[in-house]
Design a protein that fits this description.
Bound molecules: adenosine-5'-triphosphate, magnesium ion
Structural class of chain C: alpha/beta
Largest sheet of chain C: 6 strands, mixed
Largest interface: A-D, 47 and 47 residues
CATH architecture of the largest domain in chain C: 3-Layer(aba) Sandwich
Number of helices of chain B: 11
Shape of chain C: globular
Strand content of chain B: 15-25%
Radius of gyration of chain B: 20 Å
Number of helices of chain C: 18
CATH topology of the largest domain in chain C: Rossmann fold
Distance between the termini of chain C: 62 Å
Shape of chain B: globular
CATH class of the largest domain in chain C: Alpha Beta
Number of strands of chain C: 24
Chains: A mainly alpha (319), B alpha/beta (337), C alpha/beta (512), D mainly alpha (347)
Number of strands of chain B: 14
Oligomer: heterotetramer
Distance between the termini of chain B: 47 Å
Low-confidence stretches of chain B: 1-11
Chain lengths: 319, 337, 512, 347
C-alpha cells in the first residue's frame, strides 16, 4: 500500500475516534476551567448516547436524514440537565468533586440501563437506522491528495468538533465570559470581590460540560456503536479527561490530544495493513496511547498547571 | 437425574431457566437465540414466564454466574442452562453442589453426570459461508473479523478459510481479531482497513463488535452505491443488520449468515428432559445434519451458482467425504482433493 | 453630610465567636482613618462587612448619609467602596490589565474583550495617581509591591471613592511603604477617603487623621491622631501598658555557630540569587539581615536549612559542613527555623495544633517509640507549649487552620524555640502581628541569645532589626554589602545601604 | 449532638435517602417498592448461601476500599485500583498455576505476589508524581487500561495457549475452604475475608498510630511544610501509592485465589476498583468505615441478583441506589447542616 493509501485509511479513522473525545474534552475544559473537576464526563457521555439513541429510534421515521443531528441537540439538552446534578452536589452542596463525578458515572449507567429495560424490555436498544455516515466535504474533497486524505470518506461531526474547539478557544480567551470563567477557576474569591457570581459561573460551566459531553456520547453512539447497551460508553469519558489534561486544559490542546489518542487507537486496529506496524504485537499497539500519554506527561508537559482552584468548593469568607 | 426426569412427566410443574452471560437475552446472538428456544418451548407447553415456567437471569459480570445458577437451582427449575463458554466453570461447580438439579451448558463441555453439554459444529457452517464468499468475491480478497482469539472462534475462522479455498484457491483471506466481542468501534476500524485494501466480503464472528463491520459496510455503500461489498453475519440471520436505504431505495449488505440454531438445541434438550430422557453427562454436537448450523434463510444476495455449490458441499460434509478443519493445524493439512 | 461612611452598632458572629460586637466606625470625607486592634480583634471582619462579603447580624451602614444594604461586593462597588484585601485577590496567571478589568470589561464588536482599550485606560489611571505598573505584565512576574498597586488600580478603575486598605504595609519593604504612603496622599488629594488597617503605630502617626480602636470584637473608641501618641494607642488596643524598645543587655558573642563561606545559590529560574556570600553568626548574638525583599534572603535561608541546593561555597554549622545534608539532618544538628511563610512551610493546617507542635520531632523519643506515636506525650507537650507561649486556641485538638495568624505564629515560635536549637533562623517572625505579640516574640529571641544560642534574624522591618539585632548585615543583590553595629547607625543609613548606594565604599567581602 | 454522632449519622442518613429515592423510582416505574426491597433483603439474609456470597463479595470491596482510602488520607487519589487489582489477580493466579509447593508456602506466596504486583502498579504513578509532578489521577487511569491489555495478553500467550482463561490454580494456592462452603450451603465464601480484616487493622494502625502514618498524612496535607519538617516528600508519595496499590493487588488475590480460582481475559473492567471509591467514601476513609460500607455494597450487589426473579425489578436499580448513596454522602454538607439545625433546636 502506498503512503497515501495508508493515510486515506488512518486519517478518517483517527477523526472518527477523536470526535467524541474532542466534544467531551471541550466540555471538560469548561467545567475544569471554572474550578470544578469533572470525572463524571463518562456518565454524561452515557446520558448523551442513551438519549440520542432513544430519540433516533423513535424519530427516525419522521425526521429522516436529519435525525442524528436533531438527536445531537436532544443529547445536548439531556447531558446539560444531568450535569445539573453534579453542579448542585459540588457547587451548592460542597461535595467532593471527584466523588460526585464517580457517582454521576454510576448513576448514569445504572439509570440508562434501567430505562432501557423499562422501555424496550431488554438489555440494549435496537440498532438505529439513521446514523452518521461517511461524508465527502464539498469542494475540499476535490483537492488532489490532501482532499483524498482529509476530506473524503470522513464523518461530518468530526469537522463540527474541530469548529467547536476553535469556537471554545475564542470564547475562553477572547470574551468577557471566558475571562470570568477562568478567573473563577483560578481565584474564585478574587472573582467574587470583582462582582462575579462564582456560583452562577460554575453552574453555567458545569452545565455546558454536560451538554458537550452529551454531544460526545451522542456522536459516539450514532457514528460508531449504532445502539445503546452496557458497553457502549466504556472509558471514552476518561480518555476525554486525559485528553483535556494532556492538552493542558486548553481547548485547542485538548483537541490535539484527542486527535493523538484517536491516531494511536486507530493504529492499533488499522496497523495490520501498514508494513512496519504489522509485525508489532497487538498488545503493544493497544496500550500505546496510554503509555504514550504517560510518557508525554512525564516528559514534555509535566509542568502543566491545572487551574489553581480546581477541586475546591468556593465558600464565601473562607481562606 | 432420574428424579427430575420423573417430575418432567407432570405438565404443570415442568420449568426451564437459563443464565445469560453479560450479553443479555437480546444480544442478537446466542443468548437471544437460546431465549427464543425457551420461549418456544414455553409456548409449546403453555408455560408462563417466571418461577415454575420459563425464566432467565442476566449476569452483570463473571462473578454472577455461580450465584445465578445456584439461585435457579434453589427455585427448583427442572433444567438450567448456562449459555456460553464463559459459564463452563460455574456450571461445573454448581452442578456438583446441586446434584439433584439438571444443567446444560451451551458452547462448552462439562463432564458431570447431571450436565448435558451442547456444542455446535461452527466450522461446518462457516465452511459453507466460505464457499459462498469464495464464489462471490470479485477481488479475490476476503476478510475475517474475529472477536477474541480463542479455540471456539478459531473454528469459525478455519472452517471459513477452508470453504473459501475449496472453491477459490486464488482468494486470499485476511484474518484479524478485534480482541473483544463488544467493541463496535474496533470492528468499524478493522473493516475500514480491510475494505480500503480491496476486500469485498467480510465474515465476522465477533458479537457486537460485528455491528461496527456492518456500520462500515453500509457507510461505504451509501458513499458508493455501485461498489459491491458484503458482510457475512453470524449466529443468527443478520440480514436486518445489513439493511441500508440509499436514495430511497433499500439495499442490503448482508451476503448471508452462518446461523447457529441454539434455539433448536435448547428447545430440543428441554423436550428430551421433559420426556425423561435427560442426556446427563453426554455431549451433544449439533452440526449440519441436525440443522444445528446452517446458511441463513435470507438468500437474496447469493447467486444461484453459490447456492448450488452450498448444497453440493453440504452433502459432502454430511456424508463424511470431507472433514472440515477446526484448528489452524488441521487447516494447514486440509485439502479438498 | 459629615461622614462618607457610617457603620453603626455592627454585630457579626461566626460559629462560636462574636467577631464584631456593637462596633461603630465613622469616616469623614477626605481623611485617612486608621483601624487598629490586636490580631483577631475583628478588623478584617468589619471591613468585609462593609465590602459586602459578610452580612452583619445587626447594625446599620450609611454611605454618604443614606442607609444602604450591602448584600455583595457588587453593591459595594456601585456605592464607590473599594477594598485592597490583606491577602491579595489577584489571578496569578492573568495580566495586570486582565485583573483590573475583570468583571467590567470593555468590549468590541459586542462580544470580545477590548484589551487595547483596557490597557490604555489602566495606563491613564495609573498615571493620574502615580501608580506605575506595566499593564501587560503577568501577575506572577511582578513584585509584591507592584501587585498591591494592581489591587489599588482595581478599585480606582471601578471609580471607588472610599478605599479600604487591610494591612497593606505588612508585605512591603520600607521603600515600598514610602511609595504607598505617597500614593495614599495622592488619593486623598484627588478627593478619596481611606480606611487603613495597620499594626504599625508609626504609620498611623505619620499618615492618618483619626484612628478607631477595637479590642476583642468591641469598639473602644475613636481618637484624633494629633491628640494621641503611640504609647497611648498601644495601651488602648491591648488594654494594658506596652513596652516598645525591647530591653536587652549587651551581647557577649562566643564561638562561631554558623559559618557561610563564598556561598552561591541559584533561584528557581537558575539565576544566582545568593552571590559569593560570606557571613558568620556566633553563639550569644543576634545577627540581623536587613535588605529589600527579593535580594536573596529566601534562597539564603533555604540553602542553610537544606531546602535548596547551593551552587558553590560552604555552610558550616558548629564547624560541620551541612551542604550535602537533608533538611532533617540539618535540623538534628541543631538548627531551628521560623519560616517566612507560616501557611506554606510552618504548619500543616489540617493537623490539630497539637500534632503541629512535633512536626520535626514526632519520630524521636519520647514522642514515638519503635515507630509508634505516643499521643499522650505529644498532647501533653503541646499543652505545655500552648500555655508557655500564650497560643490562644480553643484546645490542642483544634485544627491549626482555625487559629488566627498571630497565634499560628506563636505556635511555630514556641515549637522552634523549645527545641532549643544552637542556631535559630527567624524569617519575618512578626509579619502581620500586633504590637503585643511582636513584643513577646522579640523578647523570646533575645532570651534565646542570652542563653548562649546563635540567632539569625531576617526582616524587612528596619525597626525590628535595629531593636533586636546585635549586628546588622545588609544584603543587596545576593551579597552582604555591609555589616554595621545598630548602635552606630541610623535607619536612613541602612536604607541607603539596602538600596545598594554605598556598596563601593563600604563593601565588605570575605569573612565578617 | 456530638460531632462524633453526627459523623456516624451522616452516612446512615445518606444510605436511607438513597433507599428512599430508589423506592420512589420503583414506584414511578410501576414496581412495588416493598416487594422490591424485600426481595433485595431476602437476597442477602434469606439463606446462609446468600449471606455467604455477600461476605465473599464484600471481601474485595474491603481491600479496594482500603486502597482508595489509604491514598486519599495521604492526599492522593488512586483511581488505579482497578488496574492494580487486575495485575494482582494475574500475579496471584500465575503463582497459583506455575508453582508446585505445599500450601503453607504456596498460598502465602501467591497472596504476596498479588500484593507486590499491585504495589508495582501503584509505584509507577507514585514515582511519576514524585519525580515529575505528573498528576496521579491521570496516570492511574492510563495504568488501568495498560493493566487490562497486558494482563489479557499474558493470559493468552503465557499462561494459556490462546485460551480465554488460565488453568485452575493448584489446590495448594487456593483460599477456598470446604469448611466455609459447607457452613454457608456451598457459597464461594473463602478465607480471603480474614486477609481483608487483617489489612483493615494494618491500615488503621499505620495511619493512626505510627510515625510513618504521621508522615504520610502530613505529606498529603502540605508537602512544603513536610519538606521543611525534614520529611522525604517524594519517598512518602511513592510509599503511599505502593501501599495503596498493594491493598488493591490483594483485592485481586481475593478474586484469583478465592472466588474464581483462575484469571480470564476481560473485555472491560471488573468495576470493583471503582466501587472501591464509593466504599472508601461512604466509610469516611477510615478503616472501620470501609468495612461497614463494603458490607453494605457487597450485600446490595448480591441481594440485587434476587430482585428480577422475585419481584421483577431490574437489578440495575441497585446500581442506581448505590450511586445515589454516594451522591448523598458526597453532599453530606447538607445533611450536616440539617443535623446542626436539629441539634440546635434540641439545646
Ligand atoms: N470565616 C470565619 N469563620 C469563623 N471565624 C472567623 C472567620 N473570620 C474571622 N473569624 C474570627 O473572627 C475574629 C476576628 O477576625 P478578624 O479577621 O476580623 O481579625 P483581625 O482583626 O483582622 O485580625 P488580624 O490583625 O490578625 O488581621 C477572629 O477570632 C477569627 O477567628
Ligand atoms: N474556617 C475558619 N474557622 C475559624 N476561624 C477561621 C476560619 N477561617 C478563617 N478563620 C479566621 O479568620 C481570621 C482571618 O483573619 P485575617 O484574614 O485577618 O488573618 P490573620 O489572622 O491576620 O492571619 P494572616 O495575616 O497570618 O494570614 C483568622 O483569625 C482565622 O483564624
Ligand atoms: Mg485581618
Ligand atoms: Mg493579619
Amino acid at each position: 500500500m502506498s503512503i497515501i493509501d495508508i493515510l486515506m485509511i488512518i486519517v478518517p479513522s483517527t477523526l472518527l475516534w477523536a470526535t467524541p473525545l474532542i466534544f467531551t474534552a471541550l466540555g471538560g475544559a469548561f467545567s475544569e476551567r471554572s474550578g470544578v473537576v469533572n470525572i463524571g464526563l463518562e456518565g454524561l457521555m452515557v446520558i448523551g448516547a442513551f438519549s440520542a439513541i432513544v430519540f433516533n429510534l423513535s424519530a427516525a421515521s419522521t425526521l429522516g436524514a436529519a435525525t442524528p443531528w436533531v438527536a445531537l441537540l436532544v443529547a445536548m439538552i439531556a447531558g446539560g440537565i444531568f450535569a445539573i446534578l453534579h453542579a448542585i452536589a459540588t457547587i451548592s452542596f460542597r461535595a467532593d468533586q471527584v466523588v460526585s463525578g464517580v457517582a454521576i458515572n454510576l448513576l448514569a449507567i445504572g439509570l440508562c440501563l434501567y430505562l432501557v429495560k423499562l422501555i424496550y424490555g431488554k438489555g440494549q436498544t435496537d440498532m438505529i437506522q439513521k446514523s452518521f455516515g461517511k461524508w465527502n466535504v464539498p469542494v475540499l474533497s476535490d483537492i488532489p491528495v490532501i482532499g483524498d486524505i482529509f476530506f473524503r470518506n470522513t464523518y461530518a461531526p468530526a469537522f463540527l468538533a474541530i469548529a467547536v474547539a476553535i469556537l471554545v478557544y475564542v470564547i475562553m480567551y477572547k470574551t468577557p465570559f471566558g475571562l470570568r470563567l477562568r478567573s473563577v477557576g483560578e481565584h474564585p474569591m478574587a472573582a467574587d470581590t470583582m462582582g462575579i457570581n462564582v456560583t452562577k459561573m460554575r453552574y453555567i460551566a458545569v452545565v455546558i460540560s454536560g451538554m458537550l459531553a452529551g454531544v460526545g456520547g451522542a456522536v459516539y453512539a450514532q457514528a460508531i456503536s449504532s445502539d445503546f447497551g452496557h458497553a457502549t460508553i466504556n472509558g471514552q469519558g476518561f480518555m476525554a479527561l486525559a485528553a483535556l489534561i494532556f492538552g493542558k486544559w486548553h481547548p485547542l490542546g485538548a483537541m490535539g490530544a484527542a486527535l493523538f489518542f484517536g491516531l494511536a487507537q486507530s493504529l492499533s486496529f488499522v496497523g495490520k495493513n501498514i508494513p512496519l506496524i504489522a509485525d508489532v504485537p497487538n498488545v503493544i499497539l493497544l496500550i500505546a496511547p496510554y503509555v504514550l500519554t504517560i510518557i508525554a506527561l512525564a516528559g514534555f508537559i509535566g509542568k502543566a498547571d491545572a487551574p489553581k482552584a480546581l477541586g475546591t468548593p468556593y465558600i464565601k469568607g473562607k481562606r | 437425574s432420574e428424579k427430575t426426569g420423573d417430575s418432567g412427566n407432570n405438565e404443570d410443574t415442568f420449568s426451564v431457566a437459563m443464565v445469560t452471560d453479560i450479553g443479555g437475552v437480546d444480544d442478537k446472538s446466542f443468548n437471544q437465540s437460546a431465549w427464543e428456544g425457551l420461549q418456544a418451548f414455553g409456548a409449546e407447553h403453555g408455560l408462563e414466564k417466571g418461577i415454575g415456567g420459563y425464566e432467565y437471569l442476566q449476569s452483570q459480570g463473571d462473578q454472577d454466574y455461580a450465584p445465578n445458577l445456584n439461585k435457579l437451582a434453589r427455585e427448583k427449575f427442572d433444567v438450567i442452562y448456562g449459555i456460553g463458554f464463559l459459564m463452563q466453570d460455574a456450571v461445573n461447580e454448581i452442578a456438583q453442589q446441586q446434584p439433584e438439579s439438571n444443567f446444560a451448558i451451551v458452547d462448552a463441555v462439562v463432564d458431570q453426570p447431571n450436565v448435558a453439554s451442547i456444542t455446535f459444529k461452527e466450522h461446518e457452517g462457516s465452511f459453507l459461508v466460505g464457499v459462498i464468499a469464495g464464489l462471490t468475491t470479485k477481488t479475490n480478497k476476503i476478510g475475517f473479523v474475529g472477536g477474541v482469539e480463542i479455540p471456539l472462534i478459531e473454528k469459525f475462522e478455519t472452517g471459513f478459510v477452508a470453504g473459501v479455498k475449496a472453491v477459490n484457491p486464488n482468494a486470499n483471506v485476511d484474518v484479524q481479531y478485534s480482541g473483544a466481542f463488544d467493541k463496535p468501534e474496533a470492528g468499524q476500524s478493522i473493516a475500514n482497513g480491510m475494505y480500503s485494501a480491496g476486500v469485498d466480503i467480510i465474515y465476522h464472528a465477533s458479537g457486537a463488535t460485528g455491528n461496527g463491520v456492518f456500520k462500515e459496510a453500509k457507510d461505504l455503500k451509501v458513499q458508493d452505491p455501485e461498489r459491491e461489498l458484503y458482510v457475512i453475519g453470524v449466529d443468527k440471520d443478520q440480514a436486518p443488520e445489513g439493511d441500508v436505504e440509499i436514495n430511497g431505495e433499500m439495499k442490503n449488505v448482508t451476503l448471508t449468515s452462518m446461523v447457529k440454531r441454539v434455539d433448536i438445541a435448547v428447545q430440543d434438550l428441554a423436550n428430551k428432559t421433559k420426556n425423561g430422557e435427560f442426556p446427563g453427562g453426554e455431549l451433544i454436537e449439533y452440526g449440519l445434519d441436525a440443522n444445528g448450523v446452517s446458511v441463513a434463510e435470507t438468500q437474496d444476495n447469493v447467486s444461484k451458482e453459490a447456492l448450488d455449490a452450498v448444497a453440493e458441499w453440504t452433502e459432502k460434509i454430511k456424508s463424511g467425504e470431507i472433514t472440515v478443519p477446526q484448528t489452524r493445524d488441521e487447516l494447514a493439512s486440509f485439502s479438498v482433493n | 453630610m459629615e461622614y462618607v461612611i457610617e457603620m453603626l452598632d455592627i454585630r457579626k458572629e461566626f460559629p462560636g465567636i462574636v467577631a464584631n460586637d456593637q462596633i461603630n466606625l465613622q469616616v469623614k470625607k477626605g481623611e485617612i482613618h486608621a483601624l487598629l486592634g490586636e490580631n483577631g480583634a475583628g478588623k478584617s471582619t468589619l471591613m468585609n462587612v462593609l465590602f459586602g462579603l459578610y452580612q452583619p447580624e445587626k447594625g446599620e451602614i450609611k454611605v454618604k448619609g443614606k442607609t444602604v444594604n450591602i448584600s455583595n461586593p457588587n453593591v459595594a462597588n456601585d456605592l464607590g467602596i473599594g477594598m485592597v484585601h490583606q491577602h491579595f485577590m489577584l489571578v496569578e496567571t492573568f495580566t495586570v490589565t486582565e485583573n483590573i478589568v475583570l468583571g467590567s470589561e470593555p468590549t468590541k464588536a459586542g462580544a470580545f474583550v477590548n484589551m487595547k482599550d483596557a490597557e490604555q485606560k489602566v495606563g491613564e489611571i495609573s498615571q493620574k495617581y502615580g501608580l506605575a505598573v506595566d499593564p501587560k505584565a503577568k501577575i506572577s512576574d511582578i513584585s509584591v509591591g507592584m501587585q498591591q498597586r494592581v489591587e489599588i488600580l482595581k478599585t480606582l478603575y471601578r471609580g471607588a471613592e472610599i478605599l479600604i486598605f487591610d494591612e497593606p504595609t505588612a508585605v512591603l519593604t520600607p521603600q515600598e511603604i514610602q511609595e504607598l504612603i505617597q500614593i495614599m496622599k495622592n488619593l486623598i488629594n484627588e478627593g478619596k477617603s481611606i480606611i487603613l488597617i495597620t499594626h504599625k503605630l508609626k504609620e498611623i502617626m505619620e499618615v492618618c487623621d483619626r484612628v478607631t480602636v477595637i479590642r476583642k470584637g468591641k469598639g473602644i473608641g475613636t481618637v484624633n491622631v494629633s491628640d494621641t501618641n503611640p504609647n497611648d494607642l498601644a495601651n488602648l488596643m491591648v488594654g494594658r501598658e506596652v513596652e516598645f524598645t525591647t530591653e536587652k543587655i549587651t551581647a557577649s558573642p562566643k564561638e562561631e555557630v554558623l559559618q557561610i563561606n563564598q556561598l552561591t545559590v541559584e533561584d528557581s529560574r537558575g539565576i544566582a540569587a545568593v552571590n559569593n556570600l560570606s557571613l558568620s553568626v556566633r553563639a550569644g548574638e543576634i545577627v540581623g539581615i536587613a535588605g529589600v525583599d527579593g535580594n536573596g534572603q529566601t534562597e539564603l535561608i533555604e540553602a542553610i536549612t537544606g531546602l535548596r541546593k547551593s551552587k558553590s561555597g560552604s555552610v558550616l554549622v558548629k564547624g560541620k559542613e551541612v551542604q550535602s545534608l537533608s533538611p532533617r539532618k540539618i535540623t538534628e544538628s541543631g538548627v531551628g527555623h521560623i519560616p517566612q511563610d507560616r501557611h506554606k512551610h510552618g504548619l500543616v493546617l489540617d493537623f490539630p495544633i497539637g500534632e503541629n507542635m512535633v512536626l520535626q520531632t514526632y519520630y524521636q523519643k519520647p514522642f514515638s517509640s519503635k515507630g509508634v506515636l505516643q499521643f499522650k506525650t505529644i498532647y501533653d507537650y503541646a499543652t505545655k507549649l500552648i500555655k508557655e507561649f500564650d497560643v490562644r486556641t480553643p484546645s490542642e485538638y483544634t485544627e491549626a487552620r482555625a487559629l488566627s495568624g498571630g497565634n499560628q505564629q506563636k505556635a511555630i515560635i514556641g515549637r522552634e524555640i523549645d527545641r532549643d536549637p544552637d542556631l535559630l533562623i527567624a524569617a519575618q517572625p512578626t509579619r502581620g502581628l500586633d504590637v503585643g505579640a511582636i513584643e513577646f516574640i522579640h523578647q523570646r529571641l533575645i532570651d534565646q541569645r542570652d542563653r548562649g544560642k546563635a540567632v539569625l534574624l531576617v526582616s524587612f522591618e528596619l525597626e525590628e532589626i535595629m531593636n533586636v539585632a546585635d549586628r546588622i548585615a545588609v544584603i543587596y543583590e545576593g551579597e552582604i554589602v555591609a555589616v554595621v553595629d545598630p548602635k552606630e547607625t541610623t535607619e536612613q543609613e541602612l536604607g541607603l545601604l539596602m538600596a545598594g548606594s554605598k556598596r563601593s565604599e563600604k563593601g565588605v567581602g570575605g569573612n565578617v | 449532638m456530638s460531632n462524633r454522632l453526627k459523623s456516624i449519622l451522616t452516612p446512615l442518613i445518606a444510605v436511607l435517602l438513597g433507599m428512599v429515592v430508589g423506592a420512589i423510582i420503583m414506584l414511578i416505574s410501576g414496581y412495588n417498592p416493598i416487594a422490591g426491597f424485600s426481595s433485595l433483603f431476602a437476597g442477602v439474609f434469606g439463606d446462609v448461601y446468600s449471606f455467604g456470597e455477600s461476605i465473599r463479595q464484600m471481601t474485595p470491596y474491603v481491600l479496594a476500599g482500603l486502597a482508595v482510602a489509604f491514598a486519599f488520607r495521604t492526599g492522593l487519589f488512586n483511581i488505579g485500583v482497578e488496574g492494580q487489582l487486575i495485575v494482582g489477580w494475574l500475579a496471584a493466579v500465575w503463582v497459583g498455576v506455575a508453582i508446585d509447593a505445599p500450601k503453607i508456602i504456596h498460598l502465602p506466596l501467591a497472596v504476596i505476589a498479588a500484593g507486590l504486583a499491585g504495589a508495582l502498579w501503584g509505584f509507577i504513578p507514585g514515582i511519576l508524581k514524585a519525580k515529575f509532578r505528573v498528576h496521579e489521577v491521570i496516570v492511574t487511569i492510563m495504568m488501568n487500561y495498560i493493566a487490562l491489555h497486558v494482563a489479557n495478553a499474558i493470559i493468552r500467550t503465557v499462561l494459556s495457549e490462546k485460551s480465554d482463561k488460565t488453568d485452575k490454580i493448584a489446590e495448594s494456592a487456593s483460599l477456598a475452604s470446604p469448611f466455609l462452603a459447607q457452613l454457608t450451603d456451598y457459597s464461594r465464601l473463602h478465607w480471603g475475608f480474614v486477609i481483608s480484616i487483617i489489612c483493615v487493622v494494618v491500615m488503621w494502625f499505620i495511619l493512626e498510630k505510627t510515625t510513618l502514618g504521621y508522615e504520610l498524612r502530613s505529606v498529603g496535607f502540605n508537602q512544603h511544610a513536610s519538606q521543611y519538617a525534614g520529611m522525604n516528600v517524594n519517598r512518602n508519595i511513592v510509599l503511599s501509592m505502593v501501599i495503596s496499590g498493594a491493598f488493591a493487588g490483594l483485592a485481586g488475590a481475593m478474586e484469583g485465589l478465592g472466588t474464581f480460582q483462575y484469571a480470564n481475559i476481560k473485555a472491560g473492567f471488573t468495576g470493583v476498583g471503582f466501587d472501591g471509591i464509593a466504599v472508601a467514601l461512604l466509610g469516611g476513609n477510615t478503616a472501620i468505615g470501609v468495612v461497614l460500607a463494603a458490607f453494605l455494597f457487597g450485600a446490595l450487589k448480591v441481594g440485587a441478583l434476587n430482585m428480577p426473579l422475585q419481584s421483577g425489578v431490574p437489578n440495575e436499580l441497585v446500581e442506581i441506589i448505590i450511586a445515589l448513596i454516594i451522591f448523598f454522602v458526597a453532599a453530606s454538607y447538607v445533611i450536616r447542616l440539617f443535623l446542626d439545625r436539629l441539634s440546635r433546636k434540641e439545646d
